[in-house]
Specification:
By secondary structure, this protein is mostly beta strands. Helix content is 7%, strand content 48%. The protein is globular. About 5% of the residues have low confidence.
Length: 341
């Protein structure tokens, strides 16, 4: 019995000694690793060579600023901001672009077009992959009639859903939903005319505003968001499903209420705004920051912590990493803001 114990102890000593030698002498040069974060294809402000011509409208940038779109004489133009090369969006049978929007975190545009099919004018939804220069038909929406306008498109790349707001004679709103299987349906809404619409990114639910009485609703199921005010406007929904609602005085925002749809409205946070801010000059990014642009100062301010970033030129848009503006010659200027705000 004593011999067995001695052999076991001897074996353990030899194994431990061997592992110690391997770990501290043999493998010492190969066991130390250093990691390095690599940013692939990340833009900097020095990369920008884009230019916006005079007389264009509906200016909009992709989420990362690699591309910019605008309407020039009712034709959609797409410009690579790194090279400055601009191309007209190609139509095959004289389609007319009625409305478009960039998909979140994608260099893909969702476009509602007016087309002629079987001798009838119709509205259809397509997507356009800018990098690959490829179109994908999604679904026919409805027949086109006189005085029909496409007001808005809101999408979620996470749920694969599109909501299209169509207005007839500016007095009757219709909202169509297209799901990830490209199935089309018409949404029941609690309003004759609606204002802003936004989809919740992680849920197939639409939040919209009754334009007549300013009441705000959500779908699936249909319910009203009951606030202690009737002077409201739906501002935005960020990627974290945070909903932002502004209390208004005319066109100015006096406070911002924000929270999630599954939370009690009474528990939503409220940010009071002392200065006069137009509702078109307030923005929300993916870090839950509430930002406002001051055209006179040439600055963007974080309303929560008071930090400011100044920029040159005329303000265009706030995107993922930059404040985008243009100089007097239409040249794009990208001003980084994340490390400051």
């Amino acid at each position: 019995m004593k011999k067995i114990i001695v052999w076991i102890m001897l074996s353990l000593i030899l194994q431990t000694t061997g592992l110690y030698i391997l770990n501290n002498f043999v493998f010492i040069t190969s066991s130390e690793f250093k990691s390095k974060k690599i940013n692939v294809n990340k833009y900097t402000s020095d990369d920008i060579k884009g230019n916006i011509p005079s007389g264009v409208n509906n200016i909009n940038l992709s989420y990362d600023g690699k591309y910019i779109t605008y309407l020039k004489e009712k034709t959609l133009n797409i410009e690579d901001t790194k090279t400055g090369n601009s191309n007209e969006f190609k139509t095959e049978d004289n389609e007319v672009v009625m409305c478009y929007t960039w998909l979140n975190n994608r260099n893909i545009i969702a476009i509602v077009e007016k087309v002629k099919k079987d001798e009838k004018e119709k509205l259809q939804l397509i997507t356009y992959d800018v990098k690959n220069d490829s179109k994908t038909f999604v679904q026919d929406i409805c027949n086109f009639k006189k005085n029909l306008e496409v007001e808005n498109i809101t999408t979620s790349v996470l749920t694969g859903v599109y909501y299209i707001h169509i207005n007839k004679n500016r007095i009757q709103s219709t909202v169509y939903r297209i799901d990830r299987n490209n199935d089309l349906s018409q949404i029941d809404i609690n309003a004759e005319v609606i204002g802003n619409i936004k989809v919740i990114p992680h849920e197939d639910r639409l939040v919209y505003q009754n334009k007549i009485n300013n009441k705000i609703f959500a779908t699936t199921p249909n319910k009203q968001l009951n606030f202690n005010s009737n002077k409201l406007t739906l501002l935005d929904i960020d990627k974290n499903d945070m909903i932002y609602v502004g209390e208004i005085d005319g066109d100015n925002i006096t406070s911002v209420l924000y929270g999630k749809l599954n939370e009690d409205i009474l528990t939503w946070k409220k940010l009071n705004i002392d200065s006069t801010i137009n509702k078109d000059q307030i923005f929300f990014n993916d870090e839950n920051q509430i930002l406002t642009n001051n055209n006179l100062e040439g600055s963007v301010k974080n309303l929560i912590n008071g930090n400011k970033v100044e920029y040159n030129g005329k303000f265009i848009q706030i995107i993922k990493d930059f404040i985008v503006s243009v100089d007097g010659d239409g040249n794009l200027i990208y001003t980084p803001y994340k490390d400051v705000l």
